[in-house]
Amino acid sequence: MSEGAPGAFDEALYLRLNPDVLAAVKAGSFSSGREHYERYGRAEGRPTVLPPAAARDRVVLNADPARYVGKSAAPPGMLDHVKISSTGGIYVTGWVDDSRDKLVSADLYFPAWSISFSAASMARIRRPDAEAAIGMATPHDCGFWGFLYAARPLPATICNAVIRLQSGAELQAVITVEAMEDDELRAAALSRLAMAAYVGEHYTSAVQSLEAAIGRQLLGFNKALTQRAVQAPYVERFGRHDARYKGSVITCLFGNIELMPVQQATFAHQRGMAAYEFIYVCNSPLAAEPLLREAKLSALIYGLDITVIILSGNAGFSAANNLAAQYARSLRLLFVNPDVFPRGADWAARHDAVVEALPAAQTALFGAPLYYDDGALMHGGMYIERDTAPRFGPHGCAETVALRVEHYGKGAPPDTRPYIRPRPVPAVTGAFISTARGWFESLGGFTEDYIFGHYEDADLCLKSLQAGCPAWLQPVALWHLEGKGGARAAQHEGGAIVNRWLFTKRWAALAAQGLLGPHPSHPALVVAE
């Protein structure tokens, strides 16, 4: 419950809404959920039950800032939207002029349950419409939004919403709840993260807004959607059956299937490619019928063996590829984007030679030089950079840290030797990764916490390095028509922000140990020339 609200603490609900706390209590880290809530839960904005509203009839406001333009007694804030999905995702947006009287919480009261969003748990953003409505002379982060994942159905049609301020003032409204599908709610929250206006620098402010609660809650919600999407996939194979192959080429499709037959045509001309199978996993059930038709035709025309896996929804890059790997019939997995094509007629033979001739430590996981269609180098391995930015607040200046990955030699002439020579590198792009199946499985595959696709490739490579085997770059060059494999919407940009935040939390400590910059000093990456 929010600070100052009367009523008993609901221990059972708190533990259901916070499975990480439940695990900590079972492990003995805390004596009870109450102990955790009193020590950390309030500051983190963790949800728990609230008592019924003391006066539900105090309902006065309509959430439309434009109605108050030019009125001297304009109310200082209101809740705009409450959106709830079938599995218990809860998304709220609103605004309040708390430049003098600070926001404490936004509390929602339903007939059978209640929930509180503390100010610390919500993102603060600009709302130009509200600024204009109340005549603010300078930009102010009067907007707010929050996201929580209850992991259970929450019956809701309307609710009493109360915005509480530090002075004790309360702004109340009746809100009609908007029921949404889980995918729609995820898109709404991620799009808000990406598209919102901020008082400070956009990216740093967006990343910071994830810290208190939103990031963790979005990850839990997305993980549930991912797990549901990979359950009971539809699988159909074209070509030979029960065959053994030198390698399994796995490609994840996000609704755009146009490049699949092109990829088949280009790989079919490679000598020795008949020893490989192709597995296409599709994250969009709407593309099932045309994809199955194209796969059947491609297998007949080009003679390569194809497996098609159709998922019920968008499971993202990591989970889709991990699932496809389970259907592979070889000991070598090649993760290849749909916009990647072999460069040269002997590509398959060169790949075979690398795998068969080099030490296992250099082939357990490797990438390749990738080239734009104009011949310029697109990728010669990846390295890690660390960005910092100041964050000013009432208690002084703090620092926001975010890791990012950069490509060696991006845009360089095609034969720039330092970027394309075989060597260990901090990471390689997921546009092309060749890995020993046993090693990939020992690493747990791609980490499925990432949303849609971004940073899971670098994450896999750092897991490999941490396990004693860094990623390598090997001379099996390919073309990469970057960005042609699918369109990016605002929700994908929001997912990328969450992923960078998650990547930073997972790997900042390791990156500081000699992995930062284009010339890392980590012992595993230093080899004799």
Detailed description of the structure:
- This protein has 529 residues and is α+β, with helices and mostly antiparallel strands.
- The chain folds into 2 domains: 161 residues, Sandwich (Immunoglobulin-like); 292 residues, Spore Coat Polysaccharide Biosynthesis Protein SpsA, Chain A (Alpha-Beta Complex).
- It is 31% helix and 26% strand.
- It is built from 16 helices and 24 strands.
- The strands form 5 sheets. A 9-stranded mixed sheet has the order 10-13-12-11-14-22-16-23-21, with helices on both faces.
The general outline is globular
Q: How many structural domains are formed by the residues?
A: 2
- What's the CATH C level of the largest domain? Alpha Beta
How many DSSP E strands? 24
From the 3D structure, determine the CATH topology of the largest domain: Spore Coat Polysaccharide Biosynthesis Protein SpsA, Chain A
Note the beta-strand portion: 25-35%
Provide the CATH superfamily of the largest domain.
Spore Coat Polysaccharide Biosynthesis Protein SpsA, Chain A
Structural class: alpha+beta
Distance between the termini: 62 Å
Counted by DSSP, the helix tally is: 16
Can you list the strand order of the major beta sheet? 10-13-12-11-14-22-16-23-21
Share of helix, binned: 25-40%
Assembly form of the protein: single chain
List low-pLDDT spans. Answer: 1-7, 49-75
Radius of gyration: 26 Å
**Any guess at the CATH architecture of the largest domain?**
Alpha-Beta Complex
Tell me about the biggest sheet?
9 strands, mixed
